[in-house]
Amino acid sequence: MTGAVLSTHGLVARYGDFQALYGIDFQIGQGEAVALIGANGAGKSTFLRAVMGLLPVASDMVRMGGQPIGGTPADRMVQRGVAIVPEGRRLFTGMSVQDNLRVAVDQADRLGRRGGWSLSRLHRLFPILNEKARTPVQSLSGGQQQMVSIGRALLCQPTVLLCDEISLGLAPKVIREIYAALPEIRAQGTSVVLVEQDVGLAQSASDRLYCLLEGRVTLTGPSGSVTRDQISQAYFGGSHAVV
Ligand SMILES: Nc1ncnc2c1ncn2[C@@H]1O[C@H](COP(=O)(O)OP(=O)(O)OP(=O)(O)O)[C@@H](O)[C@H]1O
C-alpha cells in the first residue's frame, strides 16, 4: 500500500513499568478499513490510545501523512483529523442526543475542522438519532448509544476514525445496522481502524487486518485471504506472519 494516511513505526507503550506494546508497525490508507484483532489483553485498545495521544509515545512513532505526530494531546489529534469511538462510549449522561452531538459540532468549529458530516447527514445515516434527538442518552438502548458515540466522532470530521469494540454487548441485528454504516463513512474518504473481538465480523468489514498477541503483531494481511488457521495461530502463539 502506498501513501499511508496514518502509520506507526516501532510503536511502544507502557503503563508505568508494564510494557503493553512492543514495536508496532502499522499503516492505513485513505478510505481503507483495517481491523485489529487479538485476544483480551493483546494490546488493541492500548494501540488506539497510544495513537490518539492518550498515552505518552515518541513523536516519530506515529505519523500522519508522513509527519511525526506521536504524543500529540488528544484534542490536538482531533484537530489533525483523528477521532475515537472509545470503549464504553463515554457519552455525556444527563444530556440529550442532540446536545451530545452539538458538543462535537462546536468542537469541530473551534478546531477549524471542516468536512462532509452534518447533523442532517448523520440523521440520514442513523435516523433514530433524529427521532430521539431530545431523549437523554442514558435512556437509549446500547445500540442507540453507540450510534451517538459514532456520530459524535464523525461530526469532528475525521480523516481517520478509531473504533474500539463498537459491537461489544450489542444484539446481532444492531451490530449489522451499525456496521452497515461503514461503507458510507469510508465513501467520505475516512479511514477506519476497527478493534473488534468478533473475528468473522472484523474480516468481513475490513480490507486488511492485524492480529496482536501480547503487544506484538503476529499476523498481517488482506482480510479476505487470511485463513482461520492462520488467525488462530496468530491469536495464541507463533511467529509473525505476513500474508
Ligand atoms: N490502565 C492500565 N494500567 C495498567 N495496565 C493496563 C492498563 N490498561 C491496560 N493494561 C494492560 O495492558 C495490556 C493490554 O491491554 P488492552 O486493554 O490494550 O488489551 P486489549 O487487546 O484491548 O484487550 P480487551 O479486548 O480486553 O480490551 C493488558 O495486559 C492490560 O492488562
TrEMBL record:
<keyword id="KW-0067">ATP-binding</keyword>
<dbReference type="InterPro" id="IPR003439">
    <property type="entry name" value="ABC_transporter-like_ATP-bd"/>
</dbReference>
<dbReference type="GO" id="GO:0005524">
    <property type="term" value="F:ATP binding"/>
</dbReference>
<dbReference type="GO" id="GO:0015807">
    <property type="term" value="P:L-amino acid transport"/>
</dbReference>
<dbReference type="Pfam" id="PF00005">
    <property type="entry name" value="ABC_tran"/>
</dbReference>
<comment type="similarity">
    <text>Belongs to the ABC transporter superfamily.</text>
</comment>
<dbReference type="InterPro" id="IPR017871">
    <property type="entry name" value="ABC_transporter-like_CS"/>
</dbReference>
<keyword id="KW-0547">Nucleotide-binding</keyword>
<dbReference type="GO" id="GO:0015658">
    <property type="term" value="F:branched-chain amino acid transmembrane transporter activity"/>
</dbReference>
<dbReference type="GO" id="GO:0016887">
    <property type="term" value="F:ATP hydrolysis activity"/>
</dbReference>
<protein>
    <submittedName>
        <fullName>High-affinity branched-chain amino acid transport ATP-binding protein LivF</fullName>
    </submittedName>
</protein>
<keyword id="KW-0029">Amino-acid transport</keyword>
<keyword id="KW-0813">Transport</keyword>
<dbReference type="InterPro" id="IPR027417">
    <property type="entry name" value="P-loop_NTPase"/>
</dbReference>
<dbReference type="InterPro" id="IPR003593">
    <property type="entry name" value="AAA+_ATPase"/>
</dbReference>
<dbReference type="InterPro" id="IPR052156">
    <property type="entry name" value="BCAA_Transport_ATP-bd_LivF"/>
</dbReference>
<feature type="domain" description="ABC transporter">
    <location>
        <begin position="6"/>
        <end position="239"/>
    </location>
</feature>
